[in-house]
Amino acid sequence: MKVLVYRKCSTCQKALKWLDAHGISFEERAMVEEHPTYEELKEWYEKSGMPLKKFFNTSGNLYKQMNLKDKLKDMSEEEQLKLLATDGMLVKRPLVVGTDFVLTGFREKEWEEKML
Predict the structure, then answer these.
(1) Which CDD domains does the UniProt entry name for this protein (predicted)?
(2) Which uninterrupted H or E stretch holds 104?
(3) pTM for this entry
């Protein structure tokens, strides 16, 4: 299982502590230094079954500065995926990629259902 995080993010820190507390092994990846590629994002999005908007860090400064709330609805899925691949700060974190699931953000109940 891969967990993409931004170490300065308090939600990511909470999520990593939760994983450790539950003895769940994972491969950590710094999403800003090694942001997800277009190909990875496309694969994870298709595997997730979630709306693409769930992959965007909608509360992030970059998302707001780029005024993406208004722009995304006029962009194709491919354009959105390519945009996400340009900067790890645009991606909702943490991003967890398991063998048969993908999760964005940290919601303990959802994580329990998928991982325990």
Answers:
(1) ArsC_like (cd03036)
(2) strand 102-104
(3) 0.94
